[in-house]
Amino acid sequence: MTRPIPTKETPYFNFQFGLLCVSNFLFSASFNMMIPELPDYLTRLGGAEYKGLIIALFTLMAGISRPFSGKLTDTVGRVPVMIFGSLVCVVCSLLYPVLTTVSGFLLLRFFHGFSTGFKPTATSAYGADVVHESRRGEALGALAIGYTTGSSIGPIVGSYCVTNYSFNMMFVVSALFALGSVIILYNIKETLPAPQKFSLGIIRIKRSEIFEPTSLKPALIMLLLSFSLGTALTLAPDLSESVGIHNKGLFYTCYTITSLLIRLIAGKSSDRHGRIIVLVFSSLVLLVSMVLLSFTHTATMVVISAAIFGLSLGMNGPTLTAWTVDLCSIENRGKAVASVYIALEMGIGSGAIFSAWIYHNKVENFVYAFIFPALLALIATILLIVWRKQGKQNPISDPFEMVEIGE
To answer: Average pLDDT over the chain, rounded to whole?
Structure first.
């Protein structure tokens, strides 16, 4: 049966949408609770020099899997792809206590990336399915609230488990959170009008199916801005310790709380005033946060910088996704979202490796590691301003940068 096309009056926040938000929360909390503690865990295994690979390998696999998740989202359906992504978290979380060598750990981090390579792609496509384009930014911002809440609470739970129990307890709790996400997803209705039955032939990717051309501009901005996320995820635990913050999850909690608070406002603003103007502002905010982090030397400065960093992330996420969906055709939503997420993984992965290389476990190198992503944010800001001027001169070429989306 064909799903009815949503209108401006169609409510998107119903019971099914709420279930998906809860699933997002559990999924996000599952893998985010590990991030602050994994550098110390890897050090104990004897792999301190490989800290940059903790994030890089994870995002590498996520990026490799995006074309496949995008195609499967557009053919097999949104829900099966989301279920697969959450199941990967369950399995990998249970394997961490088993693979206790440095090589085993790094291999597992690589395969753990399948999770974020699949679930967020299908989730964004689902969110775009159930709402009219005039409220797309608002809906995707609301959908991201569950994900952001998990990013905020997860690191605290993970650090609590390690401090009071053990690393293995953290891995078990992570698996239970992911399992909860899977159970919820089994109760969510599919939104793809005519899903196909899975077959091996479907996962054969042609060169033309790797990247959606309409998503080039959002992908480029995502690449430039997400470099800072890879830097922050990699260096925040050591930066926190250097200023006397012993709970490594505090940095993540601070930035995810402000990210959570700004998401709905940013989504509505992009629906009303245009995607690019919101992204210009968010890029400038990101630039400020990176400059502050480069000169941080107190716990208070870390908290303030993290909060400003979260404001930028909260504006970037739903706005870039909405802009991507605006520019593509309905039948290519999964591929378009996957294309931008490939850029996300490339940015995070390169940011993680490059920042760890610059930092080299020396506190005095923090300034250099954080100033580089600030420069990339500046480049993104300049590109967005140029594109906005071009859009005003020729609005037909970019109809979704009008004052009112869909007019």
So the answer is: 86
Smallest CA-to-CA distance from 330 within 84, 12, 11, 3 is with 3
**Contact by Cβ (8 Å): 374, 284:** no
Q: What is the pLDDT of residues 127-161, one digit of tens each?
A: 878 777 777 777 777 777 888 788 878 888 998 99
Q: CB–CB of 361/239 below 8 Å?
A: no
Stronger pLDDT, 95 or 274, i.e. the higher one: 95
Place of tokens 């939503």: 333
Give me the domains of the chain, ranges plus CATH numbers: 16-194+211-396 (1.20.1250.20)
pLDDT, average across residues 322-341:
85
pTM over 0.70? The answer is: yes
Element spanning 49, H or E: none
Cα(195)–Cα(107) distance, integer angstroms: 33
**Is the dihedral angle over the CA atoms 233, 234, 236, 241 positive or is it negative?**
positive
Which residue is it, tokens 């206590």? 97
Q: CB-based contacts of 253: which residues, under 8 Å, 6+ apart?
A: 152, 153, 155, 156
Q: How many CB atoms lie within 10 A of CB 216?
A: 14
